Every structure is written in structure tokens, then in C-alpha cells.
Amino acid sequence: MSLLELIAAADERGLAASAVACLDRCLPQPVDGADPDPLRPLWAGCADAAAWPERIAEVRAALDAAADEEGAAPRIRKLLGEAPADRAAPELREWADACSLLALEVHLDPDTAPGAGTEAARRRRAGDPDGAGPLPAGELRRQIRILEMLAATATADAASAGAGLRQVLEVSAEGQRVLRAAVSRRARRDPDERPWA
Known about the structure:
Helix content is 67%, strand content 0%. It has helices at residues 3-9, 12-26, 40-47, 52-66, 73-82, 91-106, 116-125, 134-152, 158-189. By secondary structure, the chain is mostly helical. Helix 4 runs antiparallel to helix 5.
């Protein structure tokens, strides 16, 4: 199945967790003294729908207070502001789709022409891998793997579902390390380049 088909088929837990994982991977390297994992409270909301509204509000407040304007941080704040407070809302699928698109755009080559990134990301999510570099191709595979993992534990008991979320968190954390290493290499090549622009 393509990424778009997996998003269309995902349940609310899968949509919430895959979206949070996408945003998590897009976070820039935290500055000294900043919370290294500001989205962590949202993982509890992925496990427990009743906790979702409170966790969303908590994360929004924390990121607004940080007021980080580097790279994708403003876009992450915007998406968090658009997240449905009710995890069962129909808008959740649209929100998860937007988070997926942002993550793929962030992984595109910085030399991608303005405006071309969104279209390239849309094609790849629909199943067209042509021209994908290693970073976006890896991110595409990661998103597919995460949604497949979540689907496999969709009807599991609470313990198994929790273990599934921990596996998703591990996959996402590895993706975050890969992206940050790539951004670091780019910055060494071009000190004037803004990461996650």
C-alpha cells in the first residue's frame, strides 16, 4: 500500500501517533537548556484518547513559550495549533496527512526549487519514488513502516498497544538522528544555510 492509502486506512490511534512521530522528527536540534523532547507528552495522548486534549494544550503552551523561529519550528507550532482537540474528530485524518507532508518536505534536498517540494512529496506519498534522494526515500519508508506497525497493533490489548507505541517512538527517534546528522553535514558544507528552512 502507498503511504496515502495507509493514512486513509488508519484508525484514530494510528493517525495520532504517526502524526506526532512526523512532527517529532522535524524538530530542530534543541539549544542548550531547552527541552530535548518537547512533544513527549503527546505520546501519552496517543495511548489514551482521554488524555489527548490536555496533552495537546500542554505541548502547544510549551512550544509557544519557547518561541523558536528556527527552521520548521514555526510550521510545527502551526500544525499543533490546528490539531483537533478531540482525537476522534474527522479532522484528525487531515491533520495527520499535513504532518506527513511536512516531514517529507523537511527531508527534501535544500536545493529543491521553491514550490517544488510539496509536489514532489505528494507524488512520493502516492507511490511514485522517482527522483527521491536518500533522505526523503528513507523518510517515506519510515512513515510507511510506522503506520504498518500501528495497524498491526490496532486491535491489541493495552499492554501490546503500549509496546507498539514504544517501537514507533524508537523508529522515529532513529529517523530524527538521521535527519539531524544530515543537517549538520549540510551546515558544515554551507555555514549560511538555515536548517529545516
